[in-house]
Design brief:
The structure holds two protein chains of two kinds. Chain A is α+β, with helices and mostly antiparallel strands. Chain A has helices at 2-11, 47-65, 86-103, 111-127; strands at residues 12-23, 28-34, 37-44, 69-83, 134-148. Helix content of chain A is 43%, strand content 38%. By secondary structure, chain B is α/β, with parallel strands linked by helices. The chains are: A alpha+beta, B alpha/beta.
Chain lengths: 150, 101
């Protein structure tokens, strides 16, 4: 990723800016929202994703230490993904894991069972509720503005 | 499937809190299906949005609102290839959007 950031620096006009948005390297709660309450089905923690996010943080730190960019502002926000059903969440997460497993030498063997277990737990909780409950995955997300330095 | 990503607009608020897009030439890396692109493109002078996943960029082109057609150019390309073919100092803003290059 450092090389990509060097290329971004080259493509930017002098004093241009880079906006980086990526999830914080921590587990993502899977929540069921119903009648103003929130039940926690569990936490999604895919090791390879967390490693990737940590590597992104390290790469950004490296290019700022080298003086290519200066961090001007940073903040964190919650990005919420809403699913209409447990099946929709299960399919979407498994597709995301399969996609990354094709690109990275890392087995999805540990991640898929975790998704299945979380989906089962969510299903149990949803079945006990009246209709209208919403299934939400909450991802803490980091956004930073970096100024190119020449 | 009706997955809704960030209907609360938390990401848009955070982005607009950081950036004034007015009159800027923007490169968005990893634009996916254009979900974030639509939210700021009307403010920018021009947006080049790249994405290596053919299915996603096709979706973005299909969903491109007519009023933004003059603002946005979608390219089905990986960043390494795009950078190799690009001149230096071309953009005011680069957005690296959920994209670990």
């Amino acid at each position: 990723m450092v090389h990509a950031l060097e290329e971004i620096h080259r493509l930017l006009k002098p004093t241009g800016m880079l906006i980086d948005i990526h999830p914080v390297a921590e587990a993502s709660p899977i929540e069921i929202h119903h009648g103003g309450k929130i039940d926690l089905a569990g936490n999604l923690s895919v090791r390879q994703w967390l490693t990737d996010y940590q590597q992104a943080d390290i790469a950004l730190a490296e290019i700022t230490q080298r003086g290519l960019f200066a961090i001007e502002r940073e903040s964190v926000f919650d990005s919420l993904t809403h699913y209409e059903s447990v099946e929709e969440m299960r399919t979407s997460l498994k597709e995301a894991i399969a996609k990354f497993a094709r690109e990275v030498v890392q087995s999805a063997d540990e991640a898929v069972p975790q998704v299945e277990a979380l989906a089962e737990r969510a299903e149990e909780l949803m079945q006990a509720l009246v209709s209208g409950a919403e299934l939400i995955v909450r991802e803490r997300t980091h956004i930073s503005r970096l100024r190119a330095i020449r | 499937m009706a997955i809704r990503i960030d209907p609360e607009n938390n990401e848009t608020r955070a982005l607009f809190d950081m950036v004034d897009f007015s009159g800027q030439n923007v490169l968005e890396i990893g634009c996916g299906d254009g979900r974030l692109t639509w939210r700021y493109a009307d403010k920018a002078a021009h947006v080049t949005a790249i994405e290596p996943a053919t299915k996603l960029i096709a979706q973005a082109r299909e969903d491109l609102p007519s009023q933004l057609q003059d603002h946005i150019e979608f390219q089905d390309i990986a960043f390494a290839e795009f950078a190799a073919a690009s001149a230096p100092s071309a953009f005011d803003i680069v957005i690296l959007s959920w994209s670990l290059c």
